[in-house]
Amino acid sequence: MMIDIVDDGRVRTITFQRPEAKNAMNTDMWDGTTEAFLAAADDPAVAVVVLTGSEDSFSAGQDLIEMAQLATGNGPEQKYGFAGLCRTLIDFPKPLILAVNGLGLGFGTTILGLSDLVFASTNARFKCPFTALGVAPELSSSMTFPRLLGRQNASWILM
What we know:
By secondary structure, the chain is an alpha/beta fold. Helices cover 37% and strands 23% of the residues. Helix 6 (141-149) packs across helix 7. The model has no long low-confidence stretch (mean pLDDT 91).
């Protein structure tokens, strides 16, 4: 399993567990994380969710090797995929706290705009490589970041 789920009282902690890839998100992680959030949303014993990454990274974003495979039709079949997790996070009915312990790249940065509270360690580093990859900013960040950071700061981060 590429994610761990631990309950402590009414707090559910979801931890990305793919440290060898800096917790880069692949199909198993998109689908597993989506299922974890759907289960937390439906569980009345869960009041709040904390999302974090293992070892020295929060998330390095999309696994670029798998992204290339998906673009050519050779990738694994997805149950929810990236789009499913996006919808789930946007509609998530409970407080979401991020505990960012290191690298936040792409998705690892844009998810900040959909969380209710972020705790970032002094080792946290954020970057959005969208223009370098020739793709648009994701996870509603082009809407949430200007509202949270101001238009110019959001543009600087997302571009």
